Every structure is written in structure tokens, then in C-alpha cells.
Automatic annotation (TrEMBL):
This is DNA-3-methyladenine glycosylase II. Gene3D superfamilies: DNA Methylphosphotriester Repair Domain, DNA-3-methyladenine glycosylase AlkA, N-terminal domain, Helix-hairpin-Helix base-excision DNA repair enzymes (C-terminal), Homeodomain-like, Hypothetical protein, domain 2. The lineage of its organism: Bacteria, Bacillati, Actinomycetota, Actinomycetes, Micrococcales. Residues 85-183 form the HTH araC/xylS-type domain. Its EC number is 3.2.2.21. GO terms for biological process: base-excision repair, AP site formation; DNA alkylation repair; methylation. One of its GO terms (cellular component) is protein-DNA complex. It comes from Herbiconiux sp. A18JL235.
Amino acid sequence: MDFEERYRIIQSRDLRFDGQFITAVRSTGIYCRPSCPARTPKASNVTFYETSAAAHEAGYRACKRCLPEAVPGTPAWNLRDDLAGRAMRLIADGVVEREGVQGLASRLGYSSRHLTRVLGEELGAGPLALARAHRAQTARTLLTSTELPIGDIAFAAGFASIRQFNDTIGEVFRLTPSEMRARQSGHPATTPGSIELALPYREPFDAAGVFAWLAARAVPGVESAGPAHFARTVRLPGGSGCFVVRHRAGRLLLEAHLAALADLPVLVARIRRLFDLDADPIAVDGALAGAGGGVLARRVEAVPGIRLPGAIDPHEMLVRAIVGQQISVPSARTLLHRLAVAAGTPFGRSAVDGAGGEGSDRRGAAEVAGAPADPGDDDPVGQLTLLFPTAAQIAEQAGAVLTGPRARIRTVVSVAEALASGELELGTGDDAAEQHARLVALPGIGDWTAGYLAMRILGRPDVLLTGDVALRSGARMLGLPDSPRELAARAADFAPWRSYLSLHLWRTAAEAPRARTTPRAAAARRSKETS
């Protein structure tokens, strides 16, 4: 977008662009989100920035009226596969706090000097400033939406000291932490030992679709899911923990139980990727509905705001994708549960400080909030008993636990050994082409698995797995070609959103009535799926 386009957006106060760029006003010294309700400043006084960090570096402070930090993130970091986009995904995951700028640069394959120069040119701020802005955003959220002590918030947001925390909040918001908290009228009641936050997103949001996707693949003990909730155990840099995400009365609410408060920003970033919360659904839906002669228009109208589920742990996602090759989702879930029971680490209620207990009846809370109760949401944390096994644990146990084709089991074991030794690495900061080449070079991994992992780990929005039988079945039902070559040619009109097209095709196939299948037809279908 050029200056004129962005200026028209702030004149119209279009909510869709919140989080996609920053408006800084020289006459006031503040920066705002595009939809700020204040009077539109003169064009001559306006400077647009890609990030709030760039505005900080230029000497602007955050608007106290529109709260530009309290918005979804930009969808560009998934669309962009350049150095800046990859760096932003890793910065959100807390790499700078854990490994420093040198560690971030090493992960990306560049020198720290080159990385700082590129980010400065592309985004207006270097990695330290971008990480600092991310910490300030987390701190603001905790100050205004929780009852955590201010000292705890400083470390939960990733600051190294209370002084650094106070200085940053003062510089960015022109308020002390206590003043910022005082501006909030009250905080919702929370479960003892938990941190509860609202996760912003852009409307429309197909929450039911995301929860259904996650529920169908939930590994018992590791995960618990229902029509409006998803819970799971996690390994984070500071230790193990668990979380529950609920959708109530139009809000997405996170309840986190952590061994280390400093893991909160990392967890939030990963959950945002899991639920694809930074997507621009209006742009996606508009493009899908209008492409291909409008063949998907009715489908998009029926399911607006479809999201691309991400992954909490890239290594885990790789194992799950291999186990799920050429078998049904329920069969893969059974095998993964067997593997988790045999190789996973026990996770008990004692590992979660204050989980559950008196007054934790979530069904009643949902009814009070005006949202229908989720039958499985009485105590999802109590259903979490396992941590998904590490790569080393999988390498040791998978050969004896998994069933099915020997070649697939060998692939699981060899990949787990490579992950455990560090020979193979996989992460959200990978270059998409390099990740694909690295994966397909491994025995037992082909284009389908590599493409699926690009969707789930990197959030790539333009992947179409034409070799997938269920996807082609959905295409046929919607009037699209079902042969791989013809489907690929027809789907070119849907770029750069073919991952979201894939989701519509998969969902169409899953929702279709299942006809009774004869043994001969079933054998023929299995042969087709294996080919």
C-alpha cells in the first residue's frame, strides 16, 4: 500500500487494517492504529510505519485512546518468506530474549550485522527494538487484563529487570505501570495459579471449524478438545505447562498454567499461530469467493473466516504428519495416543500450580457469560495426563509401539533420531523452499508431507496438496477438477490463498454423507489412496 491508500484507510477508520501498519502523527507525537476514533490528522503531519517498534525508535508514544498494541498482528509475516518475515516469526517466539541477536541471526543463516541492517531498512527497527516492542505489548496486556503483581508482570513479559520494565513502559506509553493498571476499571475473576487473557483476532472467525479440526486430531492425555474449547500440555523454554483456549460470547480466552512466567509471550505467540489469529479473513474470503468464476462463493458465504491451524511444536508436527501418511485421521490419532502412552512423560495435576479446585466450574461461567456450555469443558486441565514424547523418546520407543508399514515406522524412527541429535532442525523461521528440500531428501517423506508441514509449521497460505485424495474429493463435490494436474491448473486463480482453498475442500469432503461401501470398492479406494 502506498501513502494515499493508507491515508484513505485511516480516514475511513477501517478495522480490518488494525495491526497491519502504524500511523504516527508529528503534531502530537503519538502513534495510532488505523481505526483510531480521534480526528483524522492532516496528511502533512502523518508518517506511516510498518511496526510499532519503528514508531518507538522515531520517538513516538502509543495512543492512550485507541491502544494500538491491543490488536491482532500483521498477516504479512506468513505471506512473506523473506528474511524480515522469518525474523519476525522468531522474534515473536522469544528467540532474542533466549539467544540474543547473534542467536537469531545464526538461526536465519546471516550475520547479526546484516540482519540488523535488513530489518532496519525493511521494518524501520532492528531486532532489539522489535523484541522490546513485543515485550511492551505483552506487558500492557498483563497490566490491563490480569491481577498479577507488577513485579511478576515485568518478568512474564520478558524484561531482564524491574528498572528496564519501568523505563520501557514509560517511554512507550508515557505512563507508569501503576498508572496503566489504574486506567483499567477491573479484572475478571481468575482461577488460582492461572493467567487468563483475551486473544484479539479479526472478524469473521470460524471458531467452530478450528475447534472441530483440533478435536478430530486431539491425542487423549496430551490434548482435550470440544466444540468451543481446546486444551493441551506443552513444553516451553522454562519448563512444562498447559493451557486452555475457550470461545465464549464472541471472545477467545486463554487460561495458561506455566512453570515460568517468562514463557507467557512464547506461549501466546504459538497459540496465535495455532489458531491463525493474525490472518486477514476479509482478504482471504474475498479472493476465494471471486476466483475461479465464483465456484467457491457459496461455500465461503456458508463458512466465513476459515482459518489455517498451525502447530505448537514443529518437531511434534513432523512426527504427527509422518504417522498420518495414507491413513485416516482417527487411525493416526490411535497410533499417536499409543506412542504418547508408551513414550511420553506423565503430566499430573501437581505439575500445574492451582489448576482446577473449588470454584472452577467452567460450565457455569460460560452460562453466565451468555454462551452455550461446552459439555467437555468442565475441567479440561484434569484430562491432561501426558506430555507428547520428545524426539529422543520417540526414537527409543516408536519401533516397538507403532504398527503399520515397516517403511513408515523406519521413517519415524530415523527422523526422530535426526531431530534428537540436531542433525535435522525444523522451525517457524525456516525458509520455505529450503525446508521443503531438506524434508523431501529424507527417505519416506514426499511432497505431500513437506507441503502439509509448510502449511502447519510456517503458516504458508498458498499450498495445494493435489495428491490428497480427500482434497480431490472435495474439489469434485464443488465442481472443480479432481485430477491432480487439472486441479492445480484451475486452482492457480486462487493464489495466494490456496491453503485456505484446501481447507474448504477438505471440509466439504468431510461433511459429505458417507455412502455404504462394498468390500471391493473399499479395497479399490485404499489402493488409490496408497498410490
